[in-house]
Structures are given as structure tokens and as C-alpha cells.
Design goal:
The chain is mostly helical. The protein has a domain of 32 residues. The protein is built from two helices and no strands. The longest helix is centred in the first third of the chain and has 28 residues. The chain is elongated and about 65 Å long. The mean pLDDT is 85. It comes from Nocardia tengchongensis. This is Secreted protein.
């Protein structure tokens, strides 16, 4: 087998592996209900330091 065939097969395997990772993370992201996402965002907002919550002058 020539080196360019090996390189091509390695590239195809890399593309397939990347696709698997993307699909897996997309499934995990879509598994949340809108209420769960809202609760998580509110929890992150509450965890911020108090200095970040000061109103900005307009």
C-alpha cells in the first residue's frame, strides 16, 4: 500500500471520528428540556460574584 493511501484512510477515519463526537455532544445538548436550561442559566447567574451584578451606567 502506498503512503498516500494510508494517509487517505487516516483522514477518512479522522473525519468519521469527528462526526461521532459532534453527534454525541449534540444529543447531550438536546436532551435538556427548556425548563432545565432555564434553571441552569438562573443558577449560573446566581453563582456570579456580586461585583459583576452592579448596574452599568447608561
Amino acid at each position: 500500500m502506498r503512503w498516500w493511501k494510508v494517509l487517505g484512510l487516516a483522514g477518512a477515519a479522522g473525519v468519521a471520528a469527528t462526526g461521532v463526537v459532534i453527534v454525541r455532544s449534540e444529543r447531550k445538548r438536546r436532551a435538556y428540556t427548556p425548563d432545565e436550561i432555564r434553571d441552569r442559566l438562573h443558577a449560573r447567574l446566581d453563582d456570579r460574584p456580586a461585583a459583576d451584578q452592579t448596574p452599568q451606567p447608561e
